[in-house]
Amino acid sequence: MADRSTPTGLVVVDKPGGMTSHDVVARVRRLAGTRKVGHAGTLDPMATGVLVLGVGRATRLLGHLMLTEKAYDATVRLGIATTTDDAEGETTATADATRLTEAEVHEALRAFVGDIEQVPTAVSAIKVDGKRAYARVRAGEDVDLPARPVTVHELVPGPLRGGEGVVDLDLSLRCSSGTYVRAIARDLGAALGVGGHLTALRRTAVGRFDLTSAHTLDQLADDFEVLPIAEAARRTFPAYDLDVERAQAVRHGRPLDLEVAATTAVFAPDGEFLALYEPAAEPGRAKPVAVFTG
Asked: Which keywords has UniProt assigned to this entry (predicted)?
């Protein structure tokens, strides 16, 4: 159990390839000296990059962080489709992709920008009747996931690089939470009639946290650095500083006469982070989402 010396805040990790998100959480639990560690959105073992972890009371921020925009750099291989839509799966189909022109590929990508309906990859962590989809696939079951709305805010393609019957394409994208980059690779390959899968994925940002604020696990082992919960809240959400009377109302979980447009972090006069509030049904009122005092 954590004691008063246990740090409370966010840890931004630059996840290495070959580790699951749970592996990273387990490592940080040992470094922090507490089991109260969680992450704001899974990264596949193949993927690298920004993984935001909460330590102590900051784990309660994670559900809200998971809803923020994310950014990725990815490499798509056209000409091969796989069972997992990435390089770790078995090949299901091949086609000569070297006939494709850069103009054709870039034009096909236009369909994946904006508000789209996307069928998640079958080996996702989405639960189907209480069991993760990837677990059902590994057990030999056929998994048919329904399409769901996601938003790709920006998708910037690089030049094509030719190979033995395949071509590789680098992409940089910003997207809503819940977007599967593997599914974009799969669907782009299908749209071009050659199949496609993801060969590399690096998450470059989660909300306002990017690689410039990320630490490797080796760096954390040498100097375990936590972004304090108050600073993390100010960086992540709109902030509002309360007077003494309103701060006391927050400590009791009461609604406030406060105009907020979105989930907002509220603070006591001394700078203590108190709670997250969101717009209430009544105009000019805000209600607590999560209170962090007590």
From this structure: Isomerase, tRNA processing
